[in-house]
Amino acid sequence: MPEHQEDPVPSRPITSPHPVMTVILTTALLILLLGLGGTVIYLTGLPLDSPVPLVFAPIAVGLGIWASVTRRWGILGFGRPRVHGNRAAWRLVLLPLLAVFLLVLATTGGAAEQSGGDWLGLIGFVALVGFVEETLFRSVFLGLLAPTGPRTAVLVSTAAFALAHAVNLLGGQDLLSTLGQIGFAAAYGLFAACAFLRTGSIWALVVFHALFDLAQLSSVSQTPSLMDAVMTVILLAGAAWLWAGIRQSGQRQFPQVTAPTPGVAPAPR
């Protein structure tokens, strides 16, 4: 479809009279829905290994419809990334993500043998998770929390993202493994929140999230505990560096971005 020539339309901000409470309640509702989804799968015998597709698929559709109708794709970070004049920030975002991804590839023993159908299902799964979690916990939550200031926005959105992984306990996962996932999610959440505030773009985070999950879920083995610790340190160091850039630039508001030009598909497929 040819692109229209109209000027980009500024995205409307995401607001709530009680942003922190909205984030808390939304996260609690998500955990509840995932728990209910697991119960539905158990009682009905649906051929699903996880309640995530059952819950995230309608959320993804809802986010897409809402962002399109309200013209908020830009404020969600799905506009064209602005690299010119911001190359240093992009290096601080991409290099830690690349390092973490390469460490996963190097320490998980490669991909396990799977059929073509299994690969397609897995790719669809990680794409769904990457889109929903990054859009919700970064784009939407940071937008809602913008009036509270960058520090509160980063900390609250990170806490919500980390605690959401406690839902794995409902699936029978042991406490120690779940605590480890919560800790890693907190480190990544800090990095991702700072990266989004620094660049105003969500694309790199969605792609990394999907590729990271794909590498982990398709691998012969999981990353060793020592490597998890190394990746956590990399993400925390990257978050600290990005946050220093946010403070030095005097940034006090949510990144100002513009919506994609009408006629161009804004959402990842």
From TrEMBL:
Keyword presence, Glycoprotein: no
Taxonomic superkingdom: Bacteria
GO molecular function: endopeptidase activity
One Pfam family hit: Rce1-like
Assigned keywords, A-Z: Membrane, Transmembrane, Transmembrane helix
Cross-referenced InterPro entries: CAAX_protease, Rce1/LyrA-like_dom
Membrane-traversing stretches: 20-44, 51-69, 89-107, 152-170, 182-206, 226-246
Domain CAAX prenyl protease 2/Lysostaphin resistance protein A-like: 119-214
One of the protein's GO biological processes: CAAX-box protein maturation
tRNA-binding found in the keyword field: no
PANTHER family: CAAX AMINO TERMINAL PROTEASE FAMILY PROTEIN, SLR1288 PROTEIN
Name recorded for this polypeptide: CAAX prenyl protease 2/Lysostaphin resistance protein A-like domain-containing protein
Species per Swiss-Prot/TrEMBL record: Cryobacterium arcticum
